[in-house]
Design brief:
The protein is an all-alpha fold and 168 residues long. It contains three helices and no strands. The longest helix is centred in the middle third of the chain and has 134 residues, at 12-145. The protein is rod-shaped, with a radius of gyration of 64 Å. This is ATP synthase subunit b. GO terms for molecular function: proton-transporting ATP synthase activity, rotational mechanism; proton-transporting ATPase activity, rotational mechanism. It is found in: Cell membrane; Endomembrane system. Belongs to the ATPase B chain family.
C-alpha cells in the first residue's frame, strides 16, 4: 500500500492539514453563512406564519362581517316588508273610508233627489188640482149660461180633457 501512496504522492501530514483546513473553512462558512442564513430563513418563516395568521384572522373577521351584513340585510328586508304591509293596510283603510264616504254622499244625494221629486210631484198635483178646479168652474159657468145637449156635454168634456193635457 505504501507503493500506491508514493505513486499518488500521498502524504499523511498534507492530508491531515487539508482535513483541518477543510474543517476550518467549513466552520468559518458555518459561522459566517449558515447561521445568518438560518436566521434569515427562520425570520422569513416566522414572518410567513405571522402573515398566514393575519390572513386567517382577516378571513375570519371578513366572514363575521359578512354574517353581520347578511343579518342587517335580512333585518332591512323584514323592516321593508313591514313598512309595505303597513302601507297596504293604511291604503285599504283609506280606500274603505273613501268608499263609505262616497256611499254616504250618494245616499244623501239620492234622498235629497227623492225629496225634491216628491216636492215637485206635490206641486204638480196641486197645480193639476187647481187647474182642474178652475176648468170645472169654467165648465160650470158655461153650463149655467145655456142648457147643454148631449153633444155639448161631449164637446165640453173633450175641451176639459184637452185643457188638462195641455197643462201637463
Amino acid at each position: 500500500m505504501q507503493g500506491i501512496f508514493q505513486a499518488l504522492n500521498f502524504s499523511g501530514w498534507t492530508f491531515l492539514f487539508q482535513v483541518i483546513n477543510l474543517l476550518v473553512v467549513m466552520g468559518v462558512l458555518y459561522i459566517l453563512l449558515y447561521k445568518p442564513l438560518g436566521k434569515i430563513l427562520a425570520d422569513r418563516e416566522a414572518k410567513i406564519e405571522g402573515n398566514l395568521k393575519d390572513a386567517a384572522a382577516a378571513k375570519e373577521k371578513a366572514e363575521q362581517m359578512l354574517t353581520e351584513y347578511q343579518q342587517q340585510l335580512q333585518g332591512a328586508r323584514q323592516e321593508a316588508q313591514a313598512i309595505l304591509d303597513r302601507a297596504n293596510r293604511m291604503a285599504e283603510e283609506t280606500r274603505a273610508e273613501i268608499v263609505a264616504r262616497a256611499k254616504e254622499e250618494a245616499s244623501r244625494a239620492l234622498e235629497q233627489a227623492r225629496a225634491e221629486i216628491e216636492g215637485e210631484k206635490s206641486k204638480a198635483l196641486a197645480a193639476i188640482r187647481s187647474e182642474a178646479a178652475t176648468l170645472a168652474v169654467l165648465a160650470a159657468g158655461k153650463v149655467l149660461e145655456r142648457t147643454l145637449t148631449p153633444d155639448d156635454q161631449e164637446r165640453l168634456a173633450r175641451e176639459a180633457l184637452a185643457e188638462v193635457e195641455r197643462l201637463q
